[in-house]
UniProtKB/TrEMBL annotation:
Keyword Metal-binding: yes
UniProt name for this protein: Tyrosinase copper-binding domain-containing protein
Top-level taxon of origin: Eukaryota
SUPFAM superfamilies with a match to the protein in the record: Di-copper centre-containing domain
Pfam families in the record: Tyrosinase
InterPro entries: Di-copper_centre_dom_sf (IPR008922), Tyrosinase/Hemocyanin (IPR050316), Tyrosinase_Cu-bd (IPR002227)
PROSITE patterns xrefs: TYROSINASE_1, TYROSINASE_2
GO molecular function: metal ion binding; oxidoreductase activity
Native source species: Owenia fusiformis
Gene3D superfamilies per the UniProt record, alphabetical: Di-copper center containing domain from catechol oxidase (1.10.1280.10)
Annotated keywords: Copper, Metal-binding
Length: 296
């Protein structure tokens, strides 16, 4: 909100500050802590609009572009511009809690984001302590790529939730964790907490801070409960070829057999066919026909 004011969003942002969120990063509580954090955020959203659900950002989709900044993700319809102060889209001129406007420095070079192979490495594991212990922070490491890629407040651990894409990114990480849990077919996923958990705030019986000061006392181990996902929410599966989730915002690149985004409409023009990658312009630019390097 405007400098000097306090609102619920800014309060939620403050929960992530490293000085109070001692178990949010660097150990076994990373995933359950952020799961509870996401639920708190979605509850706040539903208080404004009851039927809303939190979306997730599958950043592996942008990873496949020669210039990820040209994705329609960074167009005015979705997140707004990805470079400099955000002046387009629904979050234009957004006031952040660090005293600045919402700003980004999304990189224009490829291969800075998590790859499908990275995600598969996580899903190939069978135990929680293989993806989220003190020394094996596999999913936490991969999650950091998107923070660094977006930059701005998103690249700062103290202020990253200021950028609304933070919640969509962490919703994706949470869904990958849930996919791992479902696919592993284990019977003890509620209690399988690493013995090598890290610092004391990551202890299974430690309270998730600072949540206990504001809403409820939740232990780290309780964040692994299957009740949360079976009773509260489910994740839609990731978009895959050939239908890519039946969304008009993605297409199936049959060369790579991967879903990719259209180029943002404000980057489309007569020279689009010269783009050195198999990417197409937003359908809204040319009606129902897609133009791209393949001329289809």
């Amino acid at each position: 909100g405007p400098l000097g004011t306090t609102n619920k969003y800014d309060t939620l942002v403050s929960f992530h500050h490293a000085s109070v969120a001692l178990g949010a990063h660097g150990g076994a509580a990373f995933l359950p802590w952020h799961r509870i954090y996401l639920i708190m955020f979605e509850i706040a959203l539903k208080q404004k609009r009851s039927g809303v659900s939190l979306l997730y950002w599958d950043s592996t989709i942008e990873q496949g572009l020669s210039n990820p900044l040209l994705s329609n993700l960074w167009g005015p319809t979705f997140m707004g511009n990805g470079d400099g102060d955000v002046t387009t889209g629904p979050f234009a001129n957004w006031d952040a809690t660090d005293g600045r406007k919402l700003t980004r420095a999304a990189q224009t070079i490829p291969n800075q984001l998590t790859t499908p192979a990275d995600i598969q490495r996580v899903l190939n594991r069978t135990r929680y302590d293989e993806i989220a212990c003190f020394q094996c922070r596999l999913l936490e490491t991969f999650h950091g790529y998107a923070h660094n890629y977006v930059g701005g407040q998103m690249g700062n651990i103290f202020f990253s939730p200021n950028d609304p894409i933070f919640w969509m990114h962490h919703a994706y990480i949470d869904c990958i964790w849930e996919e791992f849990r479902e696919d592993s077919q284990k019977t003890n996923i509620d209690t399988e907490y690493p013995a090598n958990f890290g610092q004391p705030p990551h202890h299974p019986q430690a309270l998730m801070e600072p949540f206990s000061d504001f809403v409820a006392s939740v232990k780290n181990i309780e964040g692994l409960s299957t009740f949360i996902t079976s009773g509260c929410y489910k994740c839609d599966r990731r978009p895959k070829c050939p239908n890519c989730g039946n969304t008009p915002n993605l297409y199936c690149d049959r060369v790579d057999n991967r879903c990719k985004p259209y180029i943002s409409s404000n980057n489309c023009g007569e020279d689009t066919a010269l783009v050195p990658a198999v990417i197409y312009c937003d359908r809204s630019v040319y009606g129902n026909q897609n133009y791209g390097v393949n001329g289809v």
